[in-house]
Design a protein that fits this description.
It is built from 8 helices and 25 strands. It has 502 residues and is an alpha+beta fold. Among the domains are: 56 residues, no CATH class; 92 residues, Thrombin, subunit H, CATH 2.40.10; 127 residues, no CATH class. Strands 15, 16, 17, 18 and 19 form a 5-stranded antiparallel sheet that branches. It has a 5-stranded mixed sheet with strand order 20-21-22-23-24, with no helix packed on it. Strand 12 and strand 13 form a beta hairpin. The chain starts with a helix and ends in a 20-residue tail after the last strand. InterPro entries: AT5G49610-like_b-prop, F-box-like_dom_sf, F-box_dom.
């Protein structure tokens, strides 16, 4: 008992507040009549305990520790030991409801952070984790062919799955989804769908007070020029892909005092492209060639003289490699622009033996990449020439378009009086003219009696596509949106052996 009393007295001296020491006799006197008992002191608020401890440790003015007087206690009361408690953050005790919003854990656990850093969290990208056979089952259930094409543009693995031999079950998209028209007074060119795929350029960043019209198209891209009220001193061009729903606004070069002879879209590898613009200044024998590259997002310019007067004419263009060919029908010449060396020249047309005017002749290219020229003789005779050498044209066998009309494909056009000669309109004939040529598929488009008609080189038949309901707005050129290749590996700049993952 004596040893226990000594330990209790020692504990009482050590736990008494700083500044007031109690002797063992004082402690012994305060416990007279009370049973020796050690009990847990009552908990105090953390802030109050911290404040008291700080006050106890502050030095007094005389350099000694400031004494905090102990409260007066009755003689029979055991002093409560002072316990220094650190402030702790509020957290739910064990067994509480941890799903409440207040106690929701937001910081990831170490194993979760490590799994996310290693890219092993497959729950974030479940579609990319599907095997190829399940991907094909999903692709088969996409109703429009446009969605399959867009899936092929997601990543390399999906592209290889769609282009693989197992993808024969997928529906092959049409070679042409439809065509666009420069249809006045529409502020944006409307799209006429021919394969059940609705496209459009309604999302173009064109202010309402302005309008945009198509100046060239190639593959699935459109080259458009923005115009506004009054004269615009700069050339505002946009390159958009309605199928991919993308649009690029090109830097606007200053062209005041110049006339735009041609603006041509030149496709590149993958998503890259170039835009070639030819300008004629006040001097008719002076030209400027501007080439925009999507890789550098900038223009390059070159100027020079030309040895003959070249007027600004409306006409189609063809791209073969790095060379742009622009038809100058009234001048009986083809403008040749070398986009790589930025040079300009001209070449003569073949001897057609017929009068040439707007609409009855066109240019294109063959399957092996040679320039070709089309013309309409008499009423419905289509003649084709192929450029075999510089300045040497070879005439091909003529074709009578009337023999390519099947009533099931062209309807009443098979019995309609049609002619490519403008003078035959006085005798009640409906005019026939060229409208477009698709370089990837070799398809020719015509306007026949307010109908858009396509000549498919695979079948050799004419097929009418769309009828113009408003005769007050005559049809001009059409701009088809075509699929360059299916499967889409080459079209998207990939090879079958391309490595990598999504």
């Amino acid at each position: 008992m004596e040893d226990l009393g000594n330990r209790v007295r020692t504990a009482g001296m050590l736990c008494w507040p700083v500044g007031e020491r109690k002797t063992p006799e004082a402690c012994e006197g305060s416990r007279k009549g009370a049973a020796p008992r050690l009990s847990r002191p009552p908990a105090r608020p953390a802030r109050r305990a911290a404040a008291e401890n700080l006050s106890a440790e502050e030095p007094a003015a005389d350099g000694k520790a400031g004494a905090v007087p102990a409260p007066a206690l009755p003689d029979d009361t055991v002093p409560t030991p002072s316990v220094d408690r650190r402030k702790r953050a509020l957290s739910p005790p064990r067994g509480s409801d941890s799903d409440s919003p207040r106690h929701k854990r937001t910081r990831p656990m170490p194993e979760e952070a490590e799994r996310a850093a290693d890219g092993k969290d497959n729950e974030a990208v479940p579609a990319l984790a599907l095997p190829d056979d399940m991907l094909l089952e999903v692709f088969k259930r996409l109703p429009p062919p446009r969605d399959v094409v867009r899936c092929a543009a997601v990543c390399r693995r999906w592209r290889r799955a769609i282009a693989g031999a197992e993808a024969a079950c997928l529906p092959t998209p049409p070679r042409h989804f439809g065509f666009f028209l420069n249809y006045d007074p529409s502020p944006l060119p409307p799209f006429v769908r021919t394969a059940g795929v609705a496209l459009g350029v309604g999302a173009l960043p064109v202010p309402p007070a302005r309008r945009a019209f198509i100046v060239d198209s190639r593959g699935r891209r459109l080259l458009m020029r923005e115009l506004g009220p009054g004269s615009i001193p700069d050339l505002r061009l946009l390159v958009c892909s309605p199928l991919d729903m993308t649009c690029v606004r090109l830097p606007s070069p200053y062209i005041a005092g110049h006339r735009v002879a041609c603006s041509v879209l030149v496709p590149g590898e993958g998503a890259s492209f170039r835009v070639v613009v030819v300008l004629f200044g006040s001097d008719p024998n002076h030209f400027e060639v501007l080439v925009y590259s999507s890789s550098s997002s900038s223009w390059e310019a070159a100027t020079g003289p030309i040895n003959r007067d070249v007027a600004v004419r409306r006409g189609p263009s063809v791209v073969i490699g790095d060379v742009v060919y622009k038809l100058q029908g009234e001048d009986k010449r083809i403008l040749v622009v070398d986009a790589l060396n930025m040079k300009l020249s001209a070449m003569p047309l073949p001897n057609t033996g017929t009068l040439l005017y707007v609409g009855n002749h066109w240019i294109g290219k063959t399957g092996d990449g040679r320039l070709c020229f089309f013309a309409m003789r008499e009423q419905l005779t289509l003649v084709k020439w192929v450029l075999e050498a510089p300045g040497k044209w070879a005439e091909q066998r003529p074709v009578n378009l009337r023999s390519l009309m099947h009533p099931a494909l062209v309807g009443d056009l098979a019995q309609t009086k049609l002619s490519a000669k403008m003078s035959d309109q006085l005798r009640g004939c409906k005019l026939v003219s060229f409208a477009a040529f698709c370089e990837a598929t070799g398809t020719l488009f015509f306007i026949m009696a307010d109908w858009v008609v396509a000549l498919d080189p695979r079948t050799g038949w004419l097929q009418r596509l769309w009828h113009n309901p408003d005769e007050s707005r005559p049809l001009g050129d059409v701009y088809p949106c075509e699929m360059l290749q299916w499967p889409p590996l080459k079209d998207l700049g990939e090879a079958h052996a391309a490595g990598g993952v999504c």
